């Protein structure tokens, strides 16, 4: 067995943990903080033409004012479905239909809604932590296989420590990003 077979691909583990971070940051963009952002509508999908389709693929999303979003629907037959998807999205936005344009006034966040959003942010962060831990588990499984294939005890401990160090670093990054997002949400 060559030394290469006994090594763990930490670059792959880093890439996968970085993917969990990128996903978390994308989810955080969908949390509104009192200002309109087109990315708020990214997680909302519409039942269009028999499949779940992101809103930005059935219409143009614009931010004409700091506290207003508009969605210009390209197909008139989808206006009702888009309105329904927006109402049921949990974003706390009340859509106003004007022909093929749906206006989304962004209400001022009250204290209760801010606290709810910080809990949602914490849930997103926990999902990211779980993803990072799953990557860690995969790395540890690779180590077990390598050990059974002849990896020395010292190398196994060294690699285990490296995988754990990587995991701890990404968990700390997730906590840091969560803290700043919660502070941003609670800011009045």
UniProtKB/TrEMBL annotation:
Cellular localization per UniProt: Cytoplasm
Q: Which InterPro entries match?
A: Ribosome_recyc_fac, Ribosome_recyc_fac_dom, RRF_sf
| Membrane-traversing stretches | none
| Keywords of this entry | Cytoplasm, Protein biosynthesis
Gene Ontology cellular-component terms listed? cytosol
CDD domains referenced in this protein's UniProt entry, alphabetically: RRF (cd00520)
Output the superkingdom of the source species. Answer: Bacteria
Molecular function as annotated in GO? ribosomal large subunit binding
Q: Which GO terms describe its biological process?
A: cytoplasmic translational termination
Q: Where is the Ribosome recycling factor domain?
A: 24-186
Protein task: Responsible for the release of ribosomes from messenger RNA at the termination of protein biosynthesis. May increase the efficiency of translation by recycling ribosomes from one round of translation to another.
Report the family membership: Belongs to the RRF family.
The UniProt entry, under PANTHER family, shows: MITOCHONDRIAL RIBOSOME RECYCLING FACTOR PSEUDO 1, RIBOSOME RECYCLING FACTOR
User: Would you tell me the protein name for this molecule?
Assistant: Ribosome-recycling factor
